[in-house]
Task: inverse folding
């Protein structure tokens, strides 16, 4: 996950980070450098690769299995997976600074670009050119630089933003489910109307009622994330942009963007159908809230299917509401190969393998979406992905994850192309957005501030 | 000498080395991956002339310190005086007031997030029925620093213990002299206790200023500097530069600027001490 997406992390997780960084600063070697145990008896020295990744224990288990399968299938290559659950960026940075980078691994977007420019990361253009099957991936998942002539590679996996909902709450209110086909997507006004019907106070009045008490809401209509995964699709859908295509200017204070952002703020403070940031922080995660019937809809990444599928309640997913054009975003973080690797070809073999849906069950379990286009265009491939484990993906998932991903993700999020994105988000957009969600400024005021503060930080595109 | 060697070596390698290195790094544009370029004082020039958030974070930190340091000193002193009385169950009270200080800062930060919640938090649950408007605490730009100052009152235990030690060092005969002259408890406080503990006050004041200027965990865990940078404490800004934006050179320069500021404040406090600190020996 990108560095500036941390608003979603739990305070405790940030606490753990403090401890890790403290240990790191104290010079504790937290990563063990394994011995050369892989030398095979046949006299052929296998190519040794170190692969670093982050993720939950659950993701670690799946990745470890994939690594073992790869080593089994490729006796000439020995991959050693190194799981770094916390403080990933710091640790990788330390390894690179110490002259011992891994051979390949997950990396956040900004760090990947910075290092690609510096030559620390391998340009994979020749590898993809030589391998048509490997290069047949979702266009929007590539991280290109140098005016598009070079590429870091693609996301580890594809991710999109979708709308989850609790079917029981919809049935009880007698409201139609959110559409799963982009051509039928709700307009913003339709979405707000549904959210108001589903928002209920402790006396049982919904948000349309005159007796509705916004101070004592029992069930929220919608939970809307505060980070850019929530608002960016809405800005794009209204014809707005985050920054100009050449990366020289922030455009969030243009009318299209402001209108979309104001509409989200109004969910909280005008329509009272979504919790304030303070309320959200004290409440359980949206999936648990939805399970207990306290929120009817939630905008979240498709990766939450993993969580939802393990909760026992009647849920499904639909496409996001829209302003002018139905839009979601394709996001993720890249897997990169480091230029210092002694075995670039072997590393690329593993690169292709490490996110192959036949080798990693994270696709079937709902955490990842495939990158290769055939999983979206070939129904038998689609079935291999979505039907592998019955009960994970609801029937509506096909419409939401296939066509919506292929047709409605045309504009890449800034992490894919905007230079200095971390600083721009951390110092200009983030503060203004937090003020907006706190209800202390209108969208126009907040975004004028963001654009003003971002002025000196804009450095163009990668 | 040999016994001190581990400590000396540890200091040289783990503290002095990095300290010197950070001064050199501060004169470069090191961003971890790239080869560092020597840029002289450019980082310092940028900090002092062109960095909006440096000024913002310094302002936030000053606001926090000006609120937190005097209040903490006052509270710790008052508590120490109270706990210096001869009452039943004294060890229990001392333990209770010290206890919060042994809660790890991260744990207490998470605890205070709950206390501060505008909708479900204990503080508003108590205050709102009393007619206080519903405060936003750490979620409002105007209330976040006062909220953090309030929270800083929670771990005054160590300071209180030091005051207590200072109070117990005040000779009894001075109080008896006041009593013989017909003085009341206020006179004892004003003319004996306070002058006699001024060295302790100076000590606590300096330590407290140094510690407060370096506050980090609360802002990092509870607010991430928000909303709208209203709680962007200096060290949090430094951390963001180093670990979010990988600008190690710039972050090192920020660290040295903070060092100079803290050193300057400490010198000022020491200089001023000759006017108000009373050392019994002299």
Result:
């Amino acid at each position: 996950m990108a560095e500036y997406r941390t608003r979603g992390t739990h305070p405790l997780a940030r606490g753990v980070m403090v401890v890790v960084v403290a240990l790191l600063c104290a010079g504790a070697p937290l990563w063990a450098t394994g011995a050369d145990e892989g030398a095979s008896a046949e006299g052929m020295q296998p190519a040794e690769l170190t692969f670093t990744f982050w993720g939950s224990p659950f993701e670690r288990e799946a990745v470890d299995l994939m690594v073992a399968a790869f080593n089994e299938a490729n006796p000439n290559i020995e991959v050693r997976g190194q799981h770094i659950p916390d403080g990933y960026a710091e640790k990788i940075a330390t390894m690179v600074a110490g002259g011992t980078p891994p051979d390949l691994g997950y990396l956040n977007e900004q760090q990947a670009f910075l290092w690609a420019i510096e030559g620390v990361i391998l340009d994979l253009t020749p590898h993809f050119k030589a391998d048509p099957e490997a290069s047949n991936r979702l266009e929007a998942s590539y991280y290109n630089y140098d005016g598009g002539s070079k590429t870091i590679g693609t996301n580890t996996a594809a991710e999109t933003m979708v709308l989850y909902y609790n079917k029981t709450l919809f049935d009880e209110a007698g409201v139609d489910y959110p559409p799963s086909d982009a051509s039928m997507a709700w307009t913003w006004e339709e979405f707000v109307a549904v959210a108001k019907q589903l928002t209920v106070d402790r006396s049982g009045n919904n948000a349309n009622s005159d007796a509705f008490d916004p101070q004592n809401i029992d069930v929220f209509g919608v939970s809307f994330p505060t980070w850019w995964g929530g608002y960016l699709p809405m800005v794009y859908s209204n014809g707005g942009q985050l920054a100009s295509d050449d990366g020289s200017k922030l455009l969030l204070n243009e009318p299209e963007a402001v209108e979309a952002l104001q509409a989200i703020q109004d969910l909280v403070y005008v329509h009272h159908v979504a919790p304030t940031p303070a309320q959200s922080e004290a409440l359980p995660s949206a999936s648990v809230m939805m399970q207990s019937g306290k929120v009817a809809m939630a905008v979240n990444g498709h990766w939450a299917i993993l969580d939802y599928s393990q909760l026992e309640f009647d849920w499904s997913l639909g496409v996001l509401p829209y302003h002018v054009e139905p839009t979601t975003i394709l996001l993720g973080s890249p897997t990169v190969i480091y230029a210092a690797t002694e075995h670039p070809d072997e590393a690329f073999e593993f690169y292709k393998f490490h996110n192959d849906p036949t080798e990693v069950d994270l696709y079937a379990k709902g955490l990842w979406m495939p990158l290769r286009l055939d999983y979206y265009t070939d129904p038998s491939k689609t079935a291999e992905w979505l039907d592998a484990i019955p009960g994970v993906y609801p029937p509506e998932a096909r419409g939401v994850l296939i066509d919506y991903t292929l047709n409605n993700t045309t504009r890449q999020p800034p992490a894919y192309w905007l230079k200095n994105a971390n600083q721009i988000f951390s110092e200009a957009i983030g503060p203004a957005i937090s003020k907006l969600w706190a209800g202390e400024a209108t969208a126009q005021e907040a975004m004028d501030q963001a654009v003003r503060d971002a002025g000196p930080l804009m450095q163009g595109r990668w | 000498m040999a016994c001190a060697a581990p400590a000396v070596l540890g200091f040289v390698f783990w503290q002095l080395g990095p300290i010197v290195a950070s001064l050199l790094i501060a004169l470069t544009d090191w961003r971890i991956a790239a080869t560092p370029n020597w840029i002289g004082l450019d980082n310092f020039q940028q900090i002092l002339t062109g960095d909006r958030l440096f000024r913002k974070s310094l302002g936030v930190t000053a606001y926090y310190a000006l609120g937190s340091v005097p209040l903490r000193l006052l509270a710790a002193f008052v508590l120490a005086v109270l706990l210096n009385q001869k009452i039943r169950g004294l060890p229990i009270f001392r333990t209770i007031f010290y206890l919060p200080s042994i809660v790890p800062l991260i744990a207490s930060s998470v605890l205070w997030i709950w206390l501060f919640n505008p909708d479900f938090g204990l503080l508003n649950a108590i205050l709102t029925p009393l007619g206080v408007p519903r405060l936003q605490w750490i979620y409002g730009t105007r209330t976040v620093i006062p909220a953090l100052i309030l929270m800083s009152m929670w771990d005054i235990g160590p300071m209180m213990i030091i005051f207590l030690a200072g109070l117990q060092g005040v000779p009894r005969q001075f109080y008896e002299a006041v009593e013989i002259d017909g003085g009341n408890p206020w006179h004892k406080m004003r003319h004996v206790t306070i002058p006699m503990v001024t060295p302790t006050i100076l000590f606590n004041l300096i330590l407290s200023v140094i510690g407060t200027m370096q506050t980090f965990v609360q802002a990092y865990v509870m607010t991430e500097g928000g909303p709208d940078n209203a709680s962007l404490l200096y060290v949090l800004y430094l951390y963001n530069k180093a670990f979010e934006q990988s600008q190690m050179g710039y972050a090192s320069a920020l660290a040295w600027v903070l060092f100079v500021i803290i050193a300057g404040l400490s010198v000022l406090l020491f200089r001023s001490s000759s006017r108000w600190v009373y050392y019994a020996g002299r």
